[in-house]
Amino acid sequence: MNNQLSLLNDEPVQQPYQAVQPETQLFKQIPKTLSWSDILGQFVAIAVLKNALERDRVGTAYLFSGPDGVGKTLTAKCFVEQLGYANPTEHPDVLWVEPTYLHQGQQLTASIAAEHEVKSKSLPLIRIEQVRTITEFLGTSALIATKKVVVIQCAEQMQTAAANALLKTLENPTNGILILISSEPKRLLSTIASRCQHLLFNRLSNEQMLEVLTRLGYSEILEVKSVMGLATGSPGAAIYHYKQLKSIPAELLLELKQPPKDILKVINISRAVETLELHAQLWILQYLQWLWWQQTSDASLIEKLQNAKMQIQMFIQPKLVWDVLLMELIN
Question: Which GO terms describe its biological process (predicted)?
Fold first, then answer.
């Protein structure tokens, strides 16, 4: 009961942090077999794919783009199943690729890192070694099916060298199908995007959000104002933000409830934020953009938060970014 009250008041109970992307939140909870009817709100994209299947005119490269958590990865899984690859996440002729952390010389996906409680101060990336694996995979004959399939999640998180290597793979004809999934397609090399058939995915309506979240057992999220405000029509994002909110220490959220006005609060916030993983720090900046805009409608304040987020994403030292931001807020 206390947990429910806490959630409704946006003062969550702290739980272990999981840096799993919004699109993955839906993907982890789907049944092994999907049908098109399981995917809501993506009528145009599904119509294009169904038409390609019916006419036996499936392309060699696709780009699924749109907001995180609206069903791009679910659609990719369903499409691959409809191509005849049963249980595509484990099929020997299907390769799923997602960004990885580098930990003690090993590449770990976000879900594996969270499972083993591996903490990281860097962002996950799609690395050149992974693209080399893709090239080798597509360069060999299929074991069971007639073609091989590669699905790349969060494709915008490719290192420059990896993107250039992937472009060379796209330029060389292969007996395979490549599906890129991205929430920020503008960050992809234009030469990569231009070689793909581009399908745009949309945000869901309130009714569709209710149906998806209820189906997945997360109907309580609908009562958490901040989470629904951040989600903006994405059930995967709603689940993601809900879990992130619950993972942040309640004391820190209380300190951040309003923009700090004195140096003591700045010091407390800086110390608390420094202990968090980089992904959690970025999430807090996004959360504050929503929260403080509701309170102040101050565009300059939101711009400062956005600039801080961009600086951290550009690998500027996070503590320095936070200290500068917080001092600007009290000056």
Answer: DNA-templated DNA replication
Q: SS3 of 307, please?
A: helix
Contact 104, 66 (CB under 8 A): no
58 in the Ramachandran plot: left (φ > 0), alpha (ψ -120 to 50) or beta? beta
Assigned token pair, 268: 């407390």
pTM (predicted TM-score): 0.80
Tell me which of 2.60.40.200, 3.40.50.300, 3.90.550.10, 3.30.230.10 is the CATH number of domain 23-200: 3.40.50.300
What length is written for the chain?
331
d(CA 80, CA 58): 11
- Contact in structure between 134 and 169 (CB atoms under 8 Å): yes
* Dihedral sign (CA 155, 160, 161, 165): positive
> Locate tokens 């720090």: which residue?
281
In the structure encoding, which two tokens stand for residue 59, read together? 């392309």
Contact 221, 228 (CB under 8 A): yes
DSSP for 314-330, written as a single string: TT--HHHHHHHHHHHHH
Helix (H) or strand (E) holding 81: helix 72-82
Going from N- to C-terminal start, the domains of the chain cover 23-200, 206-245, 248-329
Tokens of 257: 């409830």
Kindly report, residue by residue over 20-72, the tens digit of the pLDDT.
Answer: 566 655 555 555 677 898 999 999 999 999 999 999 999 999 999 999 999 99
**Nearest alpha carbon to residue 18 among 143, 110, 144:** 110
